[in-house]
Amino acid sequence: MHKPTIAGFHDARTGSIQYVVACPVTRKCAIIDPVLDYDEKSGSTATTNADLILDYIKTHHLVLEWILDTHPHADHFSAARYLKSRTAVLTAIGEHVRDVQQIWKRFYNLPDLACDGSQWDRLFRDGETFKIGELDVRVMHSPGHTLASITYLVGDAAFIHDTLFMPDSGSARADFPGGSASDLWQSIQDILNLPDDTRLFTGHDYMPGGRQALWESSVAEQKAHNPHVAGRSREDFIKLRENRDRTLPMPKLILHALQVNIRGGELPEAEANGQRYLKIPLDALPGSAWGS
Ligand SMILES: N[C@@H](CCC(=O)N[C@@H](CS)C(=O)NCC(=O)O)C(=O)O
Ligand SMILES: [Fe+2]
User: Fold this and answer.
1) Residue 229 neighbours by CB under 8 Å, 6+ apart
2) 20 to 30 A from 289, CA-CA: which of 175, 207, 249, 283?
3) Predicted TM-score (pTM) of this structure
4) d(CA 262, CA 110)
């Protein structure tokens, strides 16, 4: 079994980690969870993160094969569509994105939104396999944070996105529409049932206590040191997760981001004046903690 070569790119604005995972033999690679930059204060978008990743691929003489997302993100825009326009490479996400599209179609009142996942080239099922060069990739359905979340298991590395964060940072929230703390518990157990030395690459790091950004751990480290799982029962976890989620304000960009991400990262069409607009539903998420 070949070990993939992995580079992580931390986006400090959103605490997201974007990855390039490459086959060391063929130099073929995939991008996972690329961020399209967005400043909500000015409404500006930019492709700084995505271009940095394309530069990395070029400099390291890699050949891009896939643009992958782990889930429809609630805190940033996906750069999948932009990267496809630059590279013509296939995009993919989990098949349950169709259920997430249905949920948010109602929130945003988007009667014309196709909820069949046709915005991506491939929709992965649980257990489906594919290749990055000579690397075998297995898809694990990992719902809880969102209905559609998937983990990509690439050789000895698992891209676990918003299930577990670094061991000092616990787990992802499970309170978005379609989220479930009990599903998240099961998804985390599936990850912890991988071999102890499996390298785990998380989707976010919020640098607690001002430490540097980190994104790689292992199954053994998570089992020993993550307080959301070490010595915790299922019931304990669900209680902890649901109590904590009640205190968390919605991500700053959730309403901005999901209307873009359920379209595979495509920005809204320009209106007759040539201007694109986002649509923000009011009072659609009652009971959410208010942000400061
Ligand atoms: N402050 C961040 C929070 C983003 C957020 O809620 N992130 C999700 C992942 S998409 C999460 O699980 N956060 C866990 C936590 O904040 O404890 C923002 O506004 O963007
Ligand atoms: Fe997320």
Assistant:
1) 164, 171, 188, 192, 222, 223, 237
2) 207
3) 0.98
4) 11
| Distance of CA 71 from the midpoint of ligand 2 (Å) | 7
Helix (H) or strand (E) holding 201: strand 199-202
Ligand nearest to the CA of 172: 1
Decide if 30 contacts 132 (C-beta within 8 A): yes
Q: Which pLDDT score is estimated for 292? A: 84
Q: Where are the domains of the chain?
A: 5-259
- Best CATH choice for the domain 5-259 from the list 2.30.40.10, 3.60.15.10, 3.90.1150.10, 1.25.40.20: 3.60.15.10
Residues within a 6 A CB radius of ligand 1:
14, 74-75, 162, 172-173, 204, 248, 251-252
Q: Which atom of ligand 1 is nearest the CA belonging to 14?
A: 20
Q: What is the pLDDT of residue 111?
A: 96
In this structure, the residue with its CA closest to atom 19 of ligand 1 is: 251
| Residue-wise pLDDT tens digits, 39-61 | 999 999 999 999 999 999 999 99
For residue 39, count other CB atoms closer than 10 A to its CB.
10
Distances 20 to 1, 168, 229, 269 between C-alpha atoms, Å: 19, 24, 28, 29
Rounded Cα–Cα distance for residues 285 and 292 (Å): 17
At residue 2, the pLDDT reads: 76
Q: Which residue's CA is the nearest one to ligand 1's atom 20?
A: 251
- Cα 151 to ligand 1 centre (Å): 18
Residues (pLDDT < 50) of the chain are: none
- Going by alpha carbons, the residue nearest to atom 2 of ligand 1 is 251
| Ligand nearest to the Cα of 240, by number | 1
DSSP-assigned letter for residue 289: B
The CA distance from 29 to 26, in Å, is 9
